[in-house]
């Protein structure tokens, strides 16, 4: 019984606690039980704060008993990627350098979830400084995929993907600079929302690339992501890049039909060189959407390869600038791959970086013109399902960047354009590994993606499947 | 815009104040080279009056819609 409430969706468990059908303690205990069972196998958590979590759950229950609700997520236990500053807590950023860093402020995104009443379970593993797509971490060990522990989770939100998939937390914050929410969502079989650049404040979130970083959730379903987005989105005085664009009713959007919506399948790039099983699942996904009433059309997008290259230039330079002091003072404290990739940014001329930044407007405009006739574009998150940990453990080998680029080639263009993208579990390979598709939308139109994602999830059960503890 | 050689990368890293060995420079050239090549069709072609902030204008135009 204790194990069962951890399997509920975020939305369901929040309603159950609010209605006093379940106590926060019961739910928190259920998550902690699963964490105790799975953690030795997955290494998904950076820190587990069982006693504090139960004390907070008791406080939440006591408040509710007195008629005081903290908000939409009152008493719901969550854990997040270990890069969201939480005043008084160690925030390692997956690194040796910040192993003992204690945050003195709380990130806006996290604070808004706290204000909604969440209980902290601990913190989740991640790739060192969020700079890598596989989930390896030389300092804290790789995170394992709960569907097959010999395979990667994807990164950099590796712990978030693994923990949500194994139902150790109902949802988790990730961050997406080059695919770091969508990759683990795809590889681990959960729903992940990369938000429009500026939709959620980045204040108090560890920076990697100020022009590309986005905050977003990983959760079981589009509905759960909608609930979280509604709580976190909006302007923030602490982050001048947080947009003041109106915050939609995302939950209402998930209840709308997808009938007569038009979804575009790219004619090139995103459909090139796909693993046959990923290609099959893309076809099956569009068939489901069509059956649900959506119109599926082909869409010709501008050359996405140049967007990928531009993204790499911007990311490399901005990351190197953030890390410059430590690159000089503490190079020995970085993992080899992260060090090499940070050093890359030192070698890109300022003019090249600024050309990549200047091109962003015309590139976005060209994309939006090409996609003007569709409500969203659908594409694979990656050309393959999760590789093994061994085959993707490339460190700083000569072909390391090539391996990374292959994995992230479908996600980086979206970061460069700053578009929202929802990764949705869409099927499984014959070997039992999940495969996700990404729905790509127009700036600030997360509501449309959540609407389509929820419509797809009403017609399928991939998002409800739970890996067996075998 | 051409892909930098390992020798050029070594020099640039030195100028940036983070010297690297010849071996590391070779790895970096291999690593970052494709980004230079991929962006080459765009580099040097942008119009004079284009500023990075044009991105925010395009994004904001979507909100107005």
Layout of secondary structure:
The complex is a heterodimer of chains A (470) and B (65).
Chain A: H1 10-18, H2 24-42, E1 45-48, H3 50-65, E2 77-81, H4 108-115, E3 119-124, H5 158-165, E4 171-176, H6 182-188, E5 191-194, E6 214-219, H7 222-232, H8 250-254, E7 262-266, H9 276-291, E8 295-299, H10 304-329, H11 336-344, H12 350-358, H13 360-370, E9 376-380, H14 400-408, H15 412-417, E10 421-428, E11 434-440, H16 446-459
Parallel strand pairs in A: 2-3, 7-8, 7-9
Antiparallel strand pairs in A: 1-3, 4-6, 5-6, 5-10, 9-11, 10-11
Helix pairs in contact in A: 2-3, 5-6, 7-16, 10-11, 10-12
Chain B: H1 6-15, H2 22-39, H3 54-64
Order of helices and strands of chain B, N to C?
HHH
Q: What is the share of helical residues of chain A?
A: 25-40%
| Low-pLDDT regions of chain B | none
Can you tell me the residue ranges of chain A where pLDDT is under 50 for at least 5 consecutive residues? Answer: none
- As an assembly, this protein is heterodimer
Radius of gyration of chain B: 17 Å
Mean pLDDT of chain A: 96
| Helix content bin of chain B | 55-70%
Reading side by side through the largest sheet of chain A, how are the strands ordered?
4-6-5-10-11-9-7-8
């Amino acid at each position: 019984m204790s194990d069962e409430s951890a399997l509920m969706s975020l939305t369901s468990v929040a309603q159950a606690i609010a209605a006093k059908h379940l106590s926060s303690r019961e739910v928190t205990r259920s998550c902690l039980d699963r964490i105790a069972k799975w953690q030795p196998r997955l290494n998904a958590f950076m820190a587990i704060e069982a006693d504090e979590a139960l004390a907070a759950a008791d406080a939440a229950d006591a408040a509710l008993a007195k008629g005081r609700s903290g908000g939409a997520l009152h008493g719901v236990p969550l854990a997040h990627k270990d890069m969201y500053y939480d005043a008084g807590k160690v925030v390692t950023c997956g690194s040796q350098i910040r192993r003992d860093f204690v945050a003195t402020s709380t990130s806006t995104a996290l604070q808004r979830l706290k204000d909604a009443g969440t209980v902290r379970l601990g913190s989740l593993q991640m790739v060192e400084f969020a700079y890598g797509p596989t989930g390896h971490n030389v300092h804290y060990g790789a995170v394992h995929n709960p569907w097959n522990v010999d395979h990667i989770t994807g990164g950099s939100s590796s712990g978030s993907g693994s923990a949500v998939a194994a139902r150790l937390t109902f949802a988790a914050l990730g961050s997406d600079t080059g695919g770091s929410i969508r990759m683990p969502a795809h590889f681990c079989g959960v729903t992940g929302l990369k938000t429009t650049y500026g939709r959620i404040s980045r204040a108090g979130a560890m920076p990697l690339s100020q022009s590309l970083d986005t905050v977003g959730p990983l959760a079981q379903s589009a509905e759960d992501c909608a609930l979280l987005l509604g709580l976190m989105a909006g302007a923030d005085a602490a982050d001048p890049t947080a947009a003041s664009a109106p915050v939609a009713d995302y939950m209402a959007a998930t209840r709308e039909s997808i009938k007569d919506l038009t979804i575009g399948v790219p004619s090139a790039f995103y459909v090139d060189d796909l693993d046959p099983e990923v290609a099959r699942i893309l076809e099956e996904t569009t068939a489901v959407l069509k059956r649900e009433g959506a119109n599926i059309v082909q869409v010709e997008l501008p050359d996405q390869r140049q967007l990928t290259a531009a993204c790499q230039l911007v990311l490399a330079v901005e990351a190197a600038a953030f890390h410059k002091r430590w690159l000089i003072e503490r190079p020995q404290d970085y993992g080899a791959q992260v060090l090499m990739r940070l050093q890359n940014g030192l070698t890109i001329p300022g003019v090249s970086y600024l050309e990549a930044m200047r091109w962003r407007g015309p590139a976005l405009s060209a994309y939006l013109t090409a996609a003007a006739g569709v409500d969203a574009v659908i594409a694979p998150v990656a050309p393959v399902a999760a590789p093994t940990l061994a085959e993707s453990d490339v460190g700083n080998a000569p072909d390391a960047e090539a391996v990374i680029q292959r994995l992230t080639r479908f996600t980086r263009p979206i970061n460069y354009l700053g578009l929202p993208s929802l990764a949705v579990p869409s099927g499984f390979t014959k070997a039992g590994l999940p495969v996700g598709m990404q729905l790509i939308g127009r700036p600030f139109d997360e509501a449309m993606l959540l609407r389509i994602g929820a419509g797809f999830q009403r017609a399928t059960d991939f998002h409800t499947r739970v890996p067996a503890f075998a | 815009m051409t892909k930098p050689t390992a020798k050029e990368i070594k020099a640039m890293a030195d100028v940036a104040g983070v010297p690297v060995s010849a071996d590391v420079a070779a790895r970096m050239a291999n690593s970052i080279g494709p980004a230079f090549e991929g962006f080459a069709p765009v580099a040097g072609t942008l119009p004079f009056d284009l500023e990075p902030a044009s991105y925010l204008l395009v994004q904001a135009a979507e909100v107005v819609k």
